[in-house]
Amino acid sequence: MHREIKFSGGVVHYLLLRELHHTIPTDDMQFMLGNKLMRFSKVKFYLITGLRFGVVPGTSVYVEVDNGIHQSYFPRADEVSLKEMRVFLTLGEFQKAYDAVKLCLIYMLNWILIEVDERFKILVWQFRMVKDLDAFDVFPYGAHVYRHSIYSFKHTLKERRDGFERR
User: Fold this and answer.
1) φ, ψ dihedrals at 118, nearest 5°
2) What is the mean pLDDT of the chain?
3) Where is the DUF1985 domain (predicted)?
4) Is the confidence at residue 63, as pLDDT, over 60?
5) Could you tell me the strand order of the sheet in which 29-33 lies?
6) Do 128 and 68 touch, CB atoms closer than 8 A?
7) Of 72, 71, 76, 141, nearest to 105 (Cα)?
8) How far is Cα 165 from Cα 153, in angstroms, rounded to an integer?
9) Residue 91 belongs to what H/E stretch?
10) Closest residue by Cα to residue 31 from 45, 43, 20
11) Section 80-99 average pLDDT
């Protein structure tokens, strides 16, 4: 991205308000800007982010790992929030230095790539997947993040729009 271009939440909000709603199930978003139809699709998402696409494997392929990092660091917790993970990382108490890398990867995946709220519970399959860093590296994050982004855009705007209509 050119260094002179600045992000503008107002412009993004303006764009999202001009989304065309269609009845055909689709995983893209279309907008009418002036007389032009603009489309936000997987291809454009890939061109912007460079994140890999492909078939997202079922989460069941990541089998339970005895003495995995979830079990080692959060033995009493079935669920771990992103905030709990941040607090734990800040303490810096790791059994192995490599575990710190794995926990940081999970944190960065959720905080930076997926951009979830700190109250969000980290999905257990992420703890399982990070045990095998080769699998973690080849995971199709583009497909996962794109699907999450489209869902968030569509549902957040719908909730806000419905809220304004009730006022």
Assistant:
1) -65, -20
2) 79
3) 17-148
4) no
5) 19-20, 29-33, 36-40
6) yes
7) 141
8) 18
9) helix 82-91
10) 20
11) 91
Please state the pTM of the whole predicted model.
0.69
Structure tokens, 2:
């050119």
Per-residue pLDDT at 62 exceeds 60: no
Q: Which residue has the tokens 């192995």?
A: 96
Site of tokens 């992000």: 7
Q: Are strands 29-33 and 36-40 parallel, antiparallel or unpaired?
A: antiparallel
5 residue type, one letter: I
Contacts of 68 (CB under 8 A, 6+ apart): 127, 128, 131
The residue behind tokens 């009493």 is 76
Distances (CA, A) of 163 to 19, 33, 61, 166, 167: 17, 24, 40, 5, 7
Say if residues 20 and 12 touch (Cβ distance below 8 Å): no
Q: Where are the beta strands (DSSP E) in 9-148?
A: 19-20, 29-33, 36-40
118 strand-pairing partners = none
Q: How many CB atoms lie within 10 A of CB 69?
A: 21
